[in-house]
Amino acid sequence: MTFTRLKTLSLLVCALLALSFPGYVNGGANNNKKGSQPAAPVEPEAVIEEVNAKQLEKLLADKDYVAVFWYARSCVTCDKVLAELEKIDDDTDSFGVDFVKINDKRLAKQYGIKNFPALTYFREKEPIIYDGDLMDEEGVLDFLTSLEAMDLPDRIEEVNSKILQKIIEDTDFVAVLFCPDHETCPPRVMDKQQCRKCAKALQELENIDDEADQLGIGFVKIHDEALADEYNLGSLPALVYYRHQTPIIYEGELQREEDVLEWLVQNKSTGDEDDVIEDVTSKTLSTLISNIDNLVVLFYDHGNDDSMTVLEELEQIDDDCDKHGIQFVKIDDAKAAGDYGIDSIPAIVYFEKEIPNVYDGDLMDEEQILKWLLGQLERDEIEDVTDEMLDTMIKEGRVIAVLFYDNNDKKSQKVLEELENIDDECDALGITFVKIDNPEEAVEYGINKVPKLIYFEKGIPTIYEGNLEDEEKLLKWLTDQTSSDQIEDITDEMLDLIIEKMPHVAVLFYDKDQKKSQKILAELENIDDECDQNDIAFVKIDDDKEAKEWGIDEIPSIVLFERGIPHIYEGDLMKEDELLGWLVHQKRYSEIPEVTDEMKDKLVENTEHLAVIFYDKDDKQDMRILNELENIDDELEKEGIVIVRIDNAAEAKEYGLDHLPALIYFENKIPALYEGDLMNEDEVLEWLLVQKKTATIEEVTDEILVNLINEHEYVVVFFTGPCEPGETCDHTLNALESIDDELDEAGIIFVTTEDTGVAKKYNVKTYPRLVFFRNRDPLHFTGDLDDEDEVLAWITDDETLEIPGKIEEVNVKMLDKILAENDHVVVFFYAEGDKKAQKILNELENIDDECEEKDIDFVKTSDDDIDKEYDLPSLPALAFYRHKFRTIYTGDLMKEEEILEWVIDLHESTADVIESVDRKTLQVLINDVEHLAVFFYDDECESCSEILEELENIDDDTDKHGIQFVKSNDVKLAHEIGIFAFPALVYYETGVPIMYDGNLKNENRVLQWLVNQKNLGKRNSNRNAFNKDDECFYVGLGHDGHSAKRGNNFVPNDYKPFQCCPTKLEKSTKVPKMTAQRIGHSEGDQGKRPGVGGGNFQFAGSASTSTTTGKSASKPAATKKQAKVSKDTDDDDEDDDDEEKPLVKVSYANKRSGGSNKPQAGKKPVAKGKDNDDESQEVEKVSKQKASKKSGKLNVKTGYLSVGVRQQL
């Protein structure tokens, strides 16, 4: 036992010795070797190669794809991360990515590396920093070998076969250009035809690389002849398109990149596993429009039921569109829709060669849409565009001919017919021919009479002055325009428009009869193309008056307008190269532009936020300050503040600036003086931003104050006298800042000044003091200045605003306030500077006091575009407003006695007529009045006056029932809400329209209908108080599924209002099914008229009792109380509204769930008994055949419900 223990102990000691001194212990195989030499330890193989800064620089120069691992000696995490990354080194090698590591903090800082460890991926020397988890080596490998990481702008990336295989597996859509090996075609060696072909194809295809990327299509190239042979591609180069790993080969010409892109897009959908319309972004849509000849776009809202229902219908014609070469996409982007003039969603727009055409039919009828689209393919006509679409096309610099026309004008129609004959020729010339029916847009271009044609090239308009009915002459003129390479001559109206719409415009002010101008013009023609290449429009104008308006005294002169801001060129115009250099420099680099006093005035007039530096360019200190302020120019531009400089001492004095430099900020023409240090640009920037973003009382000088008082109707001035921060006047001023917004909303300007000159003139003796100038007439505030609420109440009080014995001049804001708050108002609308209007005003002043005695407010207004704002036929005009309702005076405005008599008659008469309203008032009423009836009529309508006379009889009755009744002859507004036949009656319940489709000559029936609508709305409101989930509502103006516009099977007077009651929906619900009743009476009213179907429909499961054949109904229907039969007679039986219409209930079911619009099996409608007046009504029979496709669909274009299967028996 002792021996065994000793033996065991010896073995343990030997083992410990062997482990402690491994170099001195040899196995039997090494007995012949010396034991004194220890074996060298095995070095682990360095996997990721270590490099220094110089080696890395060389590696980046030689290799396309390099991954760099940055580490630091003291970094504990770095070793762990490195150990993980070394596992993928071989993989990165096989993918052609060199992987190295480096410890160089200084170099790391140059590449934006601040924390260690870090990984940077260099793609052709362009670095991107990996921001994922470095411990996840698989994630790192995916990143290094992904197509996104390899992507370089405007370049098609080269890959090897292994990377290509991974890209095909990982990417749904990828296009691969196969080229010969580098050995066959070394770089820059073009001695073989296939090498030249490949280089040229690559050059062209790189032009569409970014577009393909935006469309979700990867683009790579590979130089691998063996792989090409394996795929049996034949001669190279060749393009293979992989869609979900399925390849197809492009058979067309590779050097026509636009054809390639269109082919890629068209074949993208055919590779989809799911047959769905592709969703695109705004940027992708723009790319598609530019590159696809035939494109259909559905603008929709994913959260909107109508949109989703329409989308499901359109999915059914997607394949048909593909077959005919029409690409179909959808976009859920309200801003993008707005950019194309789409006001209501969902909407369909068809783009043919970038020209948009809006579909105005029924979006639920996919067959009709397909027919329309195919018609667009075959039809060759001038396309209609919206104003937004036109603006976009002009902004893009496209060559377009635009016909401004009126669709209802015979001459326009005749011209249009002639011009259709040259549409193809214009296409051949590269001219896009469009038409637009929009009077407002026409006026913008100085067009007062249509038809008129304007040619646009690079955004520059040229008006055609010839005969539009002679299409041959017009075509020749258009041909000359496209071939002409001259600086375009424009009018003053066109100049204003170009400056407004184009970012960079160079304008030569010249005199065509002056030799110097002719000589300079000849030189400048040489740089016209270069300006085009730099996106600078170049135009010329021979108009001395326009030149003077911009302060141009010397002709010829060049002015560059940068986003509306003028820069005057002061160099030698004969040196065109220097001028070109200056133009390009001004475009690329931001500088504070020098302006004339006339330019400054125009900018003040047209620029919302403007900062003006008044300085002396001969003063060194001024120039130093100007250089400092150049540093904040970019920040101001980002904030939408324009900054300019002016060297004009006389102009500075007009603003009371005695010391230069000085800064004045203008906001909506109201100036504010900067009192701080102009050398501190940060302080200046902060002050300007505060002025823009917050409501502040502007600081002004006496000179500025005098201008404000003279130019504005209402100006409140806080005279502080000399006032230091922290003093009482400063605290009071800060408190008054809180009411500045309210005064601004009322159109009242609020300013402050320390100057005392004007204060003394208006008898201000103590400071601070508040004075209110009303049309230059001062009124001193005598209350508590520290109580801002009291100050606000005093300023906005009617007694304060009125000036005894004078007709007050008001601005639009104040006029809106007066009309909203006063029952009786007389308004004189006129144009400022109109001598005739001034004579009329002198006469009207004589009756102002009489109006005031009758509590009638009398005001005048001459704001810009006041006639458009208030929809006036012409200026001057006089209108009497009673409770917002307007009556325009049609007599002689110079006869004040007759006017006074007219005003008093209107004031004292009871409103026993239906009030006429203008567009502005009607829109206010629709928004503000809960129960509103509107009678729409047309001046050309023969029956309208007779019907109106009848309806006048119920005006008082509607008032008693709380329903406001008005009339409008605004045809354009009627068209906007879907009314094209007159007369028409629409009832608005809290802004929602319901169309009356009965006999308008029977006023009693009209009154009953209006009262019923109101009461039904009231009952619904009461019910909603108890059950929020069962909200029934009425919709009207429906067109049985057709478009509300003319065309598309338009049926005049085919309007049927319905009540909709939604039910709880399943998630998969898309398509409506319905239980329908004619609106207006219950089941008990049946049997009223013999032979007239007015009964009930029950779709997909009726609740009514029925007689069955073979099967009996499981549950009897509840008997309903019979409605009382009206005994009113109807003088005109041509209409079918003598019986009231029952309600429509809408429920929803999945379209493919098997539900149909048929009655349930075994159920039949049962006729009710006849009533005492010998009138009967049969229940309508429902056909067992499949309902019409349009039955029970929502017309989402008009927003109104239509119900099919409406048979009259």
Concise structural overview:
By secondary structure, this protein is α/β, with parallel strands linked by helices. 36% of the residues lie in helices and 19% in strands.
Main sheet record: 5 strands, mixed
Q: Going by CATH, what is the homologous superfamily of the largest domain?
A: Glutaredoxin
Count of domain modules: 9
- The CATH architecture of the largest domain would be 3-Layer(aba) Sandwich
Helix content: 25-40%
Structure commentary:
- There is one protein chain.
- With 1209 residues, the chain is of the alpha/beta class.
- It has 9 domains: 49-145, Glutaredoxin (3-Layer(aba) Sandwich); 153-271, Glutaredoxin; 274-379, Glutaredoxin (3-Layer(aba) Sandwich), CATH 3.40.30.10; 381-484, Glutaredoxin; 493-589, Glutaredoxin, CATH 3.40.30.10; 592-694, 3-Layer(aba) Sandwich (Glutaredoxin), CATH 3.40.30; 695-801, Glutaredoxin (3-Layer(aba) Sandwich); 803-909, Glutaredoxin (3-Layer(aba) Sandwich), CATH 3.40.30; and more.
- Helices cover 36% and strands 19% of the residues.
- A 5-stranded mixed sheet has the order 1-3-2-4-5. A 5-stranded mixed sheet has the order 6-8-7-9-10, with helices on both faces.
- The radius of gyration is 40 Å and the shape is globular.
- Residues 1129-1140 have a biased composition (Acidic residues).
- InterPro entries: Thioredoxin-like_sf (IPR036249), Thioredoxin_domain (IPR013766).
- Residues 1102-1120 have a biased composition (Low complexity).
- Residues 1-27 form the signal peptide.
